[in-house]
Amino acid sequence: MTLPLRIAPSILASDFSKLGQEVADVVEAGADWVHLDVMDGHFVPNISFGPDVIKSLRRYTDAFFDCHLMIAPVDPYLEAFAKAGCDGITVHAEAGPHLHRSLQTIRSLGKKVGVTLNPATPVSVLEDVLDDVDLILVMSVNPGFGGQKLIPSALDKISRIKSLIGDRPIEIEVDGGITAETIGAARKAGANVFVAGSAVYKGANKNAYRDNISALLKAAEA
Ligand SMILES: O=C(CO)[C@@H](O)[C@H](O)COP(=O)(O)O
Fold first, then answer.
1. Within 6 Å (CB) of ligand 1, which residues are found?
2. Is the pLDDT assigned to residue 1 strictly greater than 80?
3. Distance from the alpha carbon of residue 36 to the mean position of ligand 1, in angstroms
4. Could you give the 3-state DSSP secondary structure of residue 220?
5. Manganese: is it a keyword of this entry (predicted)?
6. Entry pTM
7. pLDDT digits 0-9 by tens, 154-177
8. How does pLDDT run across 7-29, given as a tens digit for each residue?
């Protein structure tokens, strides 16, 4: 099944001193989704922001909030992120303790359900949750920091996931090192949602963001 191509800028690369404006600007510049990287300093070696910040960002846009939770344990916080205004919530298969339970909880909260795999996690962990998810996020870097280079084995992983999901209308999202140079290969492999932090937020103003998103779209469609 072919799903729409979506650009999801990660606000991790934005200027946190004016986060609301940075979210509004990137949406005005053509972002399809806003990607929210939540980090706990435990599951990943960095700390970003939590549900209160997301709640305050909701005032700046109605765009889809694509929330990537890099936290463990994750279950105690799912309701707070749903209430904060996330539209989709993605949890790590590695975060545990019970992936299926986490996915069911997100579904019961009425949100789009996502699961993500770190670079070293095999595709086989998805086999028994395929009917419980709307989105699979393939990490093309080890999570925790923006500005890293895409790990090439992620491309083959995307292709294998594309075959595995068959006709199911599951979005395949890729995150890490997505630039005008790498997005084409990720699209060819089968991804339709592209998270990009540094490649979108470079230039630090709305016009630059528009040009950066256009460059990504052009490269993806080439
Ligand atoms: O989740 C993460 C990192 O953990 C990513 O969303 C990165 O923040 C993407 O940044 P770039 O590689 O596009 O700069």
1. 10, 12-13, 35, 37, 68, 141, 143-148, 175-178, 195-199
2. no
3. 10
4. helix
5. yes
6. 0.98
7. 999 999 999 999 999 999 999 999
8. 999 999 999 999 999 999 999 99
The verdict on whether 37 is a catalytic residue reads yes
* 88-110 burial: b if 16+ Cβ within 10 Å, else e: bbbbbbbbeeebeebbebbeeee
Note whether 192 and 6 are within 8 A (CB): yes
Provide the Cα torsion 58, 141, 159, 184; round to 10°: 80
Examine the residue annotation and report whether 132 is marked as an active-site residue of this protein.
no
**Domains of the chain: which residue ranges?**
6-221
* CA of 117 relative to ligand 1 center, distance in Å: 14
Which of 220, 202, 218 shows the shortest CA–CA distance to 26? 202
Answer for the pair 196, 9: CB distance below 8 angstroms, yes or no: yes
Nearest CA to ligand 1 atom 10: 146
Q: Which CATH class is domain 6-221?
A: alpha beta
Q: Report whether 186 contacts 206 (CB < 8 A).
A: no
Token couple for 70: 């890099």
Please choose, from the candidates 162, 173, 89, 153, the residue with its C-alpha nearest in 3D space to the C-alpha of residue 130. 162
